[in-house]
Amino acid sequence: MKNKLLNQVLLLTFLILSVSCETSFLDEKVTTSLSKDQLYKKTADYEMALMGVYDMLGARSLPIMDGGILNYLCNYNGGVPLLGELATDEMCSSAAGASKQLFLEELDKCKSTGQNTIVKSVYAGQYAMINQANALIFNADKLSEPNSAIKQYVAEAKFLRALCYYNLVSLYGGVVCTTLPGSERVGTVLPRSSTEKVYEQIFQDLKDAYATLPKSFAVEKEFGRATSVAAAALLARASLTAATMGKYAGITGELALEGGINSYEWARNMEKELFTQAKTYADKVIKEGFSSEDALLSMPYEQSFYPYENTVEVIFDVQFQYGFSQSEGGWVGRISGPDSWNWAIPTGNIANTYMPFGGKTIGENFPTPATKANCDMRKYKNITSFKYKGNGTLWPPLATDKTYNIGKYAVEKVKDYPNQEHPHNFVVLRLAEIYLIWAEADAELNNGPTVDAYRMINYVRRRAADANILPDLNRENLDDPAVLKPILGITPQTELEKFRLALLQERMLEFVGEGIRKVDMIRSGWSAELLENVNVSDYDEVKYLYMRRMFEEYSIFLPIPSREVTISNGIIIQNYGY
């Protein structure tokens, strides 16, 4: 997919996204040099439009209102990972990085504003994608007998629209949910929808996509396209998110907003149905997309990321490109990789949670060579460039020569393009998450972990290290600090709570830097405790930037960009607390 129709796609994307200075991020007024009569005439037109939506997943820059450019902060080129990782127990912004970029400090302190650059860019970038997907689907719906190719393009557009709406509702709460393109709602300002309505749209889009899309694309040029397996995986993730937000997030009163815009009471009332849906579609992913239940064991963790790309564990990723004035995927490495800007880097908390931990020297804590017999291989792939103080404790991420980064986003120069870096595909969905979703949903449905739930989480652990490093979890050892590092401030009472905490910790170790931690923490209901206590025991008693986080109830949601609220004349309501 990297080169298919590339020049035409880039031109079309630019033309469709060029907007007037009065335009909202929702694109209710879109100006283009192409009329509607010139678009969506042939099957190739739909294909080109679809490729344009895919390209926007990781576009280097998108033109928006006032002639501005979203640059690297929109969508998956930086913005989505940053919003999903800053202000978490696994990642933070270094003092050096945040001192140069105020928007990072705001996010990492849980004190963002509606003017925050990343908050605005991601919101706008997701709606730019939604608007273009809406246009494709809307025009296809007017056809009396669309051919099989157009039906597939519609299904792919629905998957991408669902992904965008999932990102928006997870980060901002109930958002404006529309299936109409901007050209069909000129002059209309739509209010925010409830979380229930947004999730209804997500679920329907993904079920439609699952029923239509192929299980895989075997041709290299088609890599990165949505499949039925990807639709099932995203549906499992979204169902679990909704169910746990309803059960544990505690969104009540003013935070829910007038009319229940941010309320998850509906999810609480549908708890069993949502957990069942999460488990059902996770099961479909495993059975329909992979050879056997234990397939993950044959997929080395480090081979799910650059330089190993498009490998079997990856269910859906964003395909980046190079060869332009500035590379696309290289910006992910610039944010979090070795020799990066240190905008988002691992905390000491996660570094000291990987096994082995607690060593007084780098050799004890980071054995070389790393093997499954002496190290959690996720540690080997993810954590780089540590240094120790004389007393054996880790240096904090303060001085640039002592910071540490995520190895999975290491960048390298491209020989043919000496001023660029090689792009990384950004992994959005992969098999390991499906195992953990299955385990969590099963435990919730049975009011505690079953033998099957333990087996699924242990597949993930066994893939990462041998039993002497990561013993199999079971009912008897969930309390053993040598097996699971205790989390300060949280004292689980029931086996279900202990298992949920084990899953939360496993997800931290498995998915660091992949843009899903903030949502995981919020839906657990333990965000405040995790952020209040993270690193207290790891970095003496010094208060570093990420130790000054001020998580409050309203921090569950990010603010709606101020401009959207202002130009809507109050129709779009701001989130409580902002």
Plain-language structure description:
With 578 residues, the chain is mainly alpha-helical. It has a single domain, classed as Serine Threonine Protein Phosphatase 5, Tetratricopeptide repeat (Alpha Horseshoe), CATH 1.25.40.390. It has 21 helices and eight strands. The strands form four sheets. Strands 1-3 form a two-stranded antiparallel sheet. Strands 2-8 form a two-stranded antiparallel sheet. A two-stranded antiparallel ribbon has the order 4-5. Strand 6 and strand 7 (417-421) form a beta hairpin. Helix 9 crosses helix 16. Residues 1-22, 28-35 and 536-546 have low confidence and may be disordered. Residues 1-21 form the signal peptide. It comes from Bacteroides oleiciplenus YIT 12058.
Topology:
Blueprint: H1 6-17, H2 43-57, H3 79-85, E1 91-92, H4 95-100, H5 102-108, H6 117-141, H7 148-172, H8 195-212, H9 228-248, H10 265-269, H11 271-289, E2 314-318, H12 330-336, E3 345-346, H13 348-351, H14 362-365, H15 377-382, E4 383-384, E5 405-406, E6 413-414, E7 417-421, E8 426-430, H16 431-445, H17 451-464, H18 495-511, H19 517-524, H20 527-533, H21 562-567
Antiparallel strand pairs: 1-3, 2-8, 4-5, 6-7
